[in-house]
Write a structure and sequence with these properties.
The protein is 69% helix and 0% strand. Helix 2 crosses helix 3, helix 3 crosses helix 6 and helix 7 crosses helix 8. The longest helix is centred in the first third of the chain and has 37 residues. The N terminus and C terminus are likely disordered.
């Protein structure tokens, strides 16, 4: 075989490999095991919504990864962190006297924080939740619950249900507050809190004495 034919064959083979990688994409290439590990309880939730159809569930989750997997996490200055922490602390105190109001404000606060960290706007709730589920799958359920409790449909929720929604939303709030862009690595990191540069950051507002 001539040198020219060998070079042509190598180029064709390389092009085929590149095409295969581009076709599979980050979501499809991970396969069922990769998606299940990445999404955890979110995988089970989507699977149940698709009545146990694993192919449909994996297709949806794979599409989420393709849309949001390369999302750039915006840094959050320490002064901004302190401001958000103080707002959350005030909401927890307000919950005692006005739980419904506190829940509604907590939902808006998490949505605003997520947007500031680079996620879609809170007004695009479904798109924002999909993006958050790619990077914080183990904490997204609390945000859904507080969103429901703050909606017209959730106005019949008991005080205990609203309290549980606040507790769940706080987990995502903490992750968004503490996570630095390099900590997430493009996926949910359950070890973010108290590690690396976050070790010295407190969730208590300065001067609170708590």
């Amino acid at each position: 075989m001539s040198t020219v034919l060998i070079v042509v064959a190598l180029i064709v083979g390389f092009a085929a490999i590149v095409a295969a990688v581009l076709f599979t994409g980050p979501g499809k290439a991970s396969g069922r095991g990769g998606l299940k590990r990445r999404f955890g309880p979110e995988y089970d939730r989507v699977l149940a919504r698709h009545d146990g159809d694993s192919k449909a569930a994996e297709r949806e989750l794979g599409e989420r990864v393709e849309r949001h997997g390369r999302l750039r996490h915006e840094p959050l200055p320490d002064e901004k962190r302190e401001q958000y922490v103080a707002e959350w602390a005030a909401l927890q105190e307000r919950f005692v006297d006005a739980p419904q109001e506190a829940v509604a404000q907590a939902e808006r606060l998490v949505a605003r924080l997520a947007q500031e960290r680079g996620y879609p706007e809170g007004t695009r709730y479904d798109d924002q939740v999909d993006a958050l589920s790619v990077h914080h799958a183990h904490a997204i359920d609390g945000y859904r619950r507080v969103h429901h409790a703050a909606s017209d449909e959730g106005r019949g929720a008991s005080t205990e249900e609203m309290r549980e929604a606040m507790v769940g939303a706080r987990e995502l709030f903490e992750r968004l507050i503490l996570a630095h862009p390099e900590d997430t690595g493009g996926h949910d990191d359950r070890t973010t809190r108290g590690t690396g540069r976050n070790r010295n950051f407190s969730l208590r507002p300065k001067g609170s004495g708590a």
